[in-house]
Give the backbone structure.
Amino acid sequence: MTDWPYLSAASGPGEVTNRTLRDHARQVVNHYDPAFVETFARATDHLKHIFRTAHDIVIPQGEVVLGMEAVAASLFSPGDRVLNLVSGIFGKWFETFIARAGAEPLEVAVPYDQAIDPEDVRRALRRHPDVGFLAVVHAETPSGTVNPVDDICRIASEAGVITIVDTALGLGSHPFEADAWGVDIAVAGPQKALGGVPGLCPIAVSPRAWEAMARRRPTPLRESYLSLLDWRESWVEKRAFPYTASVSLVYALESVAAQVLEVGLERHIARHTRVGRACRAAVRALGLAPWPARDEIACNAVTTVRTPEGLDAGALVARMRRPYGVKISGGYKELAGVTFRLGHMGVSAHPTHLAALLAVLERSLADLGRSVRLGAGVGAAMALLGEWE
Amino acid sequence: MTDWPYLSAASGPGEVTNRTLRDHARQVVNHYDPAFVETFARATDHLKHIFRTAHDIVIPQGEVVLGMEAVAASLFSPGDRVLNLVSGIFGKWFETFIARAGAEPLEVAVPYDQAIDPEDVRRALRRHPDVGFLAVVHAETPSGTVNPVDDICRIASEAGVITIVDTALGLGSHPFEADAWGVDIAVAGPQKALGGVPGLCPIAVSPRAWEAMARRRPTPLRESYLSLLDWRESWVEKRAFPYTASVSLVYALESVAAQVLEVGLERHIARHTRVGRACRAAVRALGLAPWPARDEIACNAVTTVRTPEGLDAGALVARMRRPYGVKISGGYKELAGVTFRLGHMGVSAHPTHLAALLAVLERSLADLGRSVRLGAGVGAAMALLGEWE
Amino acid sequence: MTDWPYLSAASGPGEVTNRTLRDHARQVVNHYDPAFVETFARATDHLKHIFRTAHDIVIPQGEVVLGMEAVAASLFSPGDRVLNLVSGIFGKWFETFIARAGAEPLEVAVPYDQAIDPEDVRRALRRHPDVGFLAVVHAETPSGTVNPVDDICRIASEAGVITIVDTALGLGSHPFEADAWGVDIAVAGPQKALGGVPGLCPIAVSPRAWEAMARRRPTPLRESYLSLLDWRESWVEKRAFPYTASVSLVYALESVAAQVLEVGLERHIARHTRVGRACRAAVRALGLAPWPARDEIACNAVTTVRTPEGLDAGALVARMRRPYGVKISGGYKELAGVTFRLGHMGVSAHPTHLAALLAVLERSLADLGRSVRLGAGVGAAMALLGEWE
Amino acid sequence: MTDWPYLSAASGPGEVTNRTLRDHARQVVNHYDPAFVETFARATDHLKHIFRTAHDIVIPQGEVVLGMEAVAASLFSPGDRVLNLVSGIFGKWFETFIARAGAEPLEVAVPYDQAIDPEDVRRALRRHPDVGFLAVVHAETPSGTVNPVDDICRIASEAGVITIVDTALGLGSHPFEADAWGVDIAVAGPQKALGGVPGLCPIAVSPRAWEAMARRRPTPLRESYLSLLDWRESWVEKRAFPYTASVSLVYALESVAAQVLEVGLERHIARHTRVGRACRAAVRALGLAPWPARDEIACNAVTTVRTPEGLDAGALVARMRRPYGVKISGGYKELAGVTFRLGHMGVSAHPTHLAALLAVLERSLADLGRSVRLGAGVGAAMALLGEWE
């Protein structure tokens, strides 16, 4: 039996705090127990502050992918045209869901080390005035890149287009303002920058999005695990559930959301900003290159690194894990081999975690025969992490 | 803030052991960490023993309802005819999924306090030789009844029909033999008689069922949260995941499955048998009547009770919860008001749990003005629970 | 390997809440970490409210017996005369510590099913005006009896005698007022009626007691695990520790003390009062007799039962534990065989716990051939537990 | 309320594994529950392997200091002469306990950055043939130094002297062989190199030591928290306890002892050896000096560092803790100010922990105005930690 890792520094799920684990281990109760219903309500209240929305939060009881598929299934009908922004693998993936719903995807795409240009969005919307929906990934986990969701959603929103943002990785690691930016649907996950446990998919939904699901469609989707309306009719309207809730995951979600708010959302994001920057500085100090084309579009929670000539990314991942006990991620799908990924999210967006990760990265690169000055990456990172808050 | 309950005796999720909670609280890791992959594999191995199957186990990462919808979405195509056996609310619910998949449901139905007669199934299959699938609920959580799944599936299987069993409540509380009985798809949940944490949906799939999903359908369902084939192509074939796994729920599932096998599956079921019988004896001793028409079709994990004349079931549920801290369930949907439900599942299929539940039931009935000899129900139950094993 | 019990109903340690276990499982830190020092301070603040004292709390890091020995070692010198009140085994035990300190024990004793009469104390103090100290056990765990500590300490205090109370079992299950009653030293334990984890020994100390330790003795005891003065000089004066603190036990203590105060101390005690009375009623309904000579002197947290003619107490303890998974206690030392003990303390001072315990007691008595109407004890208990608060 | 630390790198207690925390959180049971008695027995069995003894293990339920005082109180009588080896503050402290027992301490002392020379012991024993006991600290927590306990105890043992070793910090971080080296009494603690939870004090006792306690003393110490004989008469002989056991601490102790043995004791020690060496290399690379006079006598679990000219050790400790969340220890008593201490013990004897600690040390030194090349210490350490096992 393989030993458990000493440090999780993968692209997610990340490590969680001891407090989260303890809150997670509360005795399981029936989901209609009043104490649980109150806990669920507290979770959604906390999440409103984190999504920066005054509207509704629903929480399908499955992974983020469920949320994205549910959004497509709940929102799109045959004949709908959806402007899908593709700057990475997750963005591209959403086309599957658009197509399954019978809608037509239109694409604005950039290479996967780039970010979407809001002006391209503006142009595309002008060219296709019948587009009803726009979908964009806030932060791409495979590429470690970030899109300018604020400008994109403002443009789309002004054009009367319903906006859908996958902010699974972005929420908590980059500024995000659902209402102020005109985001109609924002899909998140607890297990990335919020520092939580995987298995739930909190979604913020605007009145306009509810309207589109309930009225614009000929047959609104109901009585399905993919139905967001089921959640509105049960949770939002009646504090009920469409099916059995994942009780202990909700304990953990309520806990991590409370912890983020106790730290302060801005400070929580600022920690990611600083650690992300420090990690990229370390990567460069080790003679490696971050995958994103420019620093301004780099994600603060996951650093995707270009695999240098002569290095086997899989061997690096394996070496860090054994014998050093540090789990990082290799590249995902098309980016397998050409990239590997360092995670620093949630509670792990911290100098101690980053230093440990980088020290083992350096050591493992040396073990694999790369010329590395041990400590160079850690030093470069720590130079940027003074006066930590 | 409402206090947490002292005792969970609802229709599920039930209480879990301290060991399960502790295993659940293992630090979260990336789902591709080798230690986690081994844990997931152990969970599926345990489950093969519990389902009594030599075939495959997949575990969609959501509640049982996800599993049932996924089965329908993965298996049925327009033109398919599905014999749907309806002896309760959950059986009826499945029609929605049949219809959404474009298939045609044929129904064999009985009143909700009855069980399906296998001979009716035989007759229906003869009458409709083009039926390709049969669906049946092993144990109905709302009614607290059990269907003779062994005979039903044998009949259907011999007729070349693919059989689908919802054994969310049955698995662990009643005998179940997937392979021996000709069950092609069995859908379970950890949070009932297995004594686990809600949020996952283990499914046993026969080769014949895989064949039907992959070959018989014009377009096999892939790249969807509802796709079982995605799980075959990822987990079964490559020890990979179609999406991020609910890591900590898998810890708990592996743990409860191991605990069931350590107790011994037969002994685990026998405990439910004895506690179920004892609970019904107690109910009768209190002048109440179990909902199932006959004792032989009563479920061993949930006792559904007919609300007697003059009792407000909702008031009883509320009274037991406050001030006594015991959570039971009211009736579900059509059975609301006319029934209430006592849960005794998983670790709670035990004399101590049952005695506590019944003592508070008696006390609360008395508080609500019913004439009850305090201790009568407990005594009747304990009379049947000597020589506990 | 023996299975763990389903229910702990012994004379202590008792079961603890899921919240206590979770708080207990906080990551261990160095005892001088500022967050820990604050936690320790919160624990002592909570305990002042529970002891009803405005004076000091110290917490030797060991079991209650350590506390009692430390009190004797810290307080008594050769030549001192100590009036030791003996109504049970623990009271008698204290003589060992008095003697080891070189002091002379004078005894007021009653049979172990009786309580001390305060007038006997008054008489003894008149007879022996040179007595400097009085020691009394609030609630005797072996006998399940309670002494009138209020009157005893008032009488002694007025006589200028320093009073020492072992309230390990009494604190939380019976009223206790350190300052109002003139208690100079009160020794408790977390693991009984406070519902906590064993291994610590909170002690309330009055200024008069400190004075006696520091000034009256020719050589105050310092630099010893038995020294209370070490704790005053370190914790009370400097928020320091005389040795490494049992960090995780302090987490648990702070948690249970907070939980008692959240419930409300009076309500917490009232729960014990009602459950104790209900347990004795059940014992009588089963044809058994509580050990205490009269109900007014019975302890509310432990019911000591006289073993009836023809019953083997050890066989009963064994039978309840296996196969039924309920741990009760046999008799202690001189009371072995002639008594057995039922615990209902802390979180277990609750109708559900009591009903489960009694149902298994009845069942086991029947198994051992006693004539018992199953349910009779539970019914008698529940008759007294309506309108639980 | 102060935030909890991110990393504990103090002189102990150290961090514990997630598994230890989970095992620690098992429901509390009565200490005479058979499952608990078995757990206690497993703990003592594991400890025999760790102490390398075939003799008895007893576990007084308190901190290491309790153990040392109990040894003195149980073993020494007026007239006894005890050769006390003093190479640090803890060694010196033991004189208090020798004197309180009425025995006479003879001292072999060296400066606190040195280790005892076994030849000095030989000479002292020749000079004082009436010495009956020898006491030595294996590893001094304040100084971070190690004594050659193997040679010292062999010499003393051959001279017929009963040997007492405080190996609280040494056990698990340096080789230790109770039986092979002639150690009669070895006192340990779970919370240092074993990676456990503080509050217990496992002691290995040889038959010769038991003999000395029981026969050589005019009045053997019994019925005291300080009595080791009580433990022999209860635990060793009857699997009973002299007082209530600290149940949950025993859960944790059994767990950490099992974990050490699963890793393998030699490998566990080797990890400390490598990490200790790496830490000292890092300290030197940062222009600092380890406190021990030579590397061969440096402790592998705690690195005591000489505070350099111009640095305020207290300010460094405070700075690392806030804002960086890393808790180290300042100097202890006489060594306050002139030293500070870095802990790397138990689970924290690992490259990730060390790198994180050193990175924050470097950063904090820089913050305080020291000239430090960030990364230099980490690099020096990691250079020695390749091929980690």
Notes: Chain B touches chain A through 61 residues (CB under 8 Å).
